[in-house]
Description:
By secondary structure, the chain is α/β, with parallel strands linked by helices. About 30% of the residues lie in helices and about 30% in strands. It has a 6-stranded mixed sheet with strand order 6-7-8-3-9-10, sandwiched between helices. Strands 2-1-4-5 form a 4-stranded antiparallel sheet, covered by helices on one side. Strands 11-12 form a two-stranded antiparallel ribbon. A hairpin with a 2-residue loop joins strand 11 and strand 12 (about 245-250). Helix 4 crosses helix 5 (about 140-155). The longest helix is centred in the last third of the chain and has 16 residues, at about 170-185.
Amino acid sequence: MIELKQCAAGYPGRRVLEGVDLVLPDGQITVLAGPNASGKTTLLRTILGLEPLLEGDIVVDGCLQGALSPRELALRASYLPQSRPVPNITGGRMVLHGRFPHLSYPRRYRPQDLQIAREALREAGAEGLEGRLMPALSGGQRQQVYLAMLLAQQTQNVLLDEPTAYLDVAHQFRMLSCARRLADRGRAVVLVLHDLCQALRWADRLAVLDGGRLQMADSPEKVFASGVLDRVFGVEVRRFQTPNGWQYYCEERRPPSPQ
C-alpha cells in the first residue's frame, strides 16, 4: 500500500502537484485519470523518488519513502513508464533486469532468477521474444517484454503509466487482465489510463486529477455519478447496461440550444 499525505511535487521553478492526499491500497486497481499535463506521470515518478517531493509525506508499505534507499524502494515498487530507451539486448536479458534489486554486486543470476524470468515472460504473453533483440521488436512486443521485466521484479506495489500504449485491442485486454490478476493476488496496482471507458471498466478506485490537484478518488460508480469527469474532460460521459455490466462511452459536449 502507498499513501500520499498532502504531497506537493514538481520541477525546478514549476510545481505540478499540490496538496494530494491519496491512498493506493493493496488488492485493488487504482486508475489515475485526468487531462494532459494534470500531474499523473509526475505523481508516479514522485512516488518512486524520480522527481523531488516538495512537501508532504509518501509512505510505502509502512515506510517513509525518503528513508528508503533506491534499492529498498525498488524492492517495494516497480514501474512501467510511458517510454524508455531501447537497448541492443535480447528480450530475455531485458526481463532479467527486473531481478537487479534482488541481487548483490557483482550481479550473478541464480537458477531461481532465471525461472522467475521465464514465468514472467509467460504471464506477460511474451514467450518467444526472449531470444530476439529489443530494437527488432514492434512497439507492442517491447511493451510485453517491459511488462515481463516488471513482473520479474516481484514487488508489492506495481505502477504502470499508459501500459496499453502501442497495443492492439486484444493485447490491451491481456495487459489489463494481467493487472487484474496482480490486484487479485493482493498487490497495489496503479494505472495511468487516458481511455476513460477502460478506466471506468477496470478500476476499483478512480482518482481524477486536474490542474495538479486531486479532484476526487472513489469507486468508478461514484465518480461517474458525481459529474466530475464531464467537468474535467469537457465531454459527456454516458453508459448503458449490458449482461456484463455497465459499458461507458463519451460524447462531445453539445452547446446549449439557443432559446
